[in-house]
Write a structure and sequence with these properties.
By secondary structure, the chain is of the alpha+beta class. Helices cover about 45% and strands about 20% of the residues.
Length: about 240
């Protein structure tokens, strides 16, 4: 014979009302409604009055619809518009606690909330677009300033190479030196690291040495003089004519 109530939320210290909230349980074992006798399979919803489990029909909650958790704006609006609402929880065996699954709200309230969310979706998209544009503009200004500071430190570095170094070193999400905190404060040492990396890869046979199987540090030692020659030439002040 099926147990009258095998989930026992009330016995575990949980009631069907928390403050002014009605709590409904998504059961993890079969049970039965003590009022109408309806069998409740795993996953069914029930409310506990005292220690009596009730199906939603007997609890006068069967006119409500379930809104799963996940969409904060929709949940907030549906809750605001629904005269009657209930919180749905389920016991987690792994975590040994009841966890929120969503809410039950009036169907008209949910429909109104969905319409409101759709109405401002375009506004939210425009806001995201403005934010993205602002980030892009800020990033462009940062790269431009990085190239300018680089030119002050290495006045003989050709303008196209300054821009190439800045673009490469400051690429978003690259983890390169130009995205470091030091570089973003235009620390000369960080800028020089970016210049040296560019010279190493673009003005020496460093990449060929690596491709040939040479150890990285050995390859760096091999091209050190060539790198220093370019660095010294670029660092020399432009002649004033």
């Amino acid at each position: 014979m099926m147990a009258k109530f095998s989930n026992a939320p009330a016995a575990a210290g949980h009631s069907s009302n928390t403050g002014n909230e009605i709590v409904v349980f998504s059961i993890i074992r079969e049970s039965a409604c003590t009022e109408c006798g309806a069998e409740l399979c795993k996953g069914s919803l029930l409310r506990v009055e005292g220690e009596r489990p009730l199906c939603l029909t007997c609890a006068d909650l069967d006119h409500l619809v379930f809104l799963p958790r996940g969409d904060t704006a929709l949940t907030r609006r549906a809750s605001k518009h629904s005269t009657l609402r209930a919180v749905v929880v389920r016991f987690s065996r792994a975590r040994k606690r009841y966890e929120r699954q969503g809410i039950l709200v009036e169907e008209a309230a949910l429909e109104r909330a969905e319409q409101e969310c759709l109405a401002d979706a375009a506004a939210r998209e425009r806001a995201r677009g403005r934010a993205a544009q602002h980030r892009d503009e800020s990033d462009t200004l940062y790269i431009k300033e990085f190239a300018k500071r680089l030119g002050e430190l290495f006045p003989r570095c050709p303008a196209p190479e300054r821009q190439a170094i800045a673009d490469h070193a400051c690429q978003k999400h690259s983890g390169r030196v130009g995205r470091s905190a030091a570089a973003q404060s235009f620390d000369p040492k960080a800028i020089e690291l970016a210049v040296r990396a560019h010279v190493r890869h673009g003005h020496t046979n460093y990449d060929q040495l690596l491709a040939g199987g040479m150890d990285r540090m050995e390859a760096r030692t091999s091209v050190r003089d060539a790198v220093e020659e370019v660095i010294l030439r670029w660092r020399t002040a432009v002649d004033c004519a």
